[in-house]
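hey can u check if this looks right to u? its 109 residues, i copy pasted from the old doc so theres a chance i mangled smth
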Amino acid sequence: QGLYSSVVCPGLVMSNMTYRILPVFLWKLLMPIMWLVSGSTAVFVKAPLGSFASSVWLFKQKPEYLDSLVKYHSCTSGLGRCYVEPRKMDVDEDTAEKLYQKLLELEEQ
């Protein structure tokens, strides 16, 4: 039917949405550590808008050319440049096909 589904990961985003999880004083202790770690790992997106990189990139692609067994991650370079990194998902293709066939059966019912 021309429907496609892809998996994206926004990365670890520094935003105020998580502030209620821990007390404020813990965030004040953790933030410097998080900023230091962000320079050494690409999946730590420093700006909330950077978390949309994979979604926007995916929207611009032709779905029929994308790999269905890949997750597209929003990443940020050490200099703050946003980019998308495809990573193969650990999925058994036979099991995925069986699940897909079962979903088609359920849809018919």
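The helical segments are 24-38, 53-59, 93-108.
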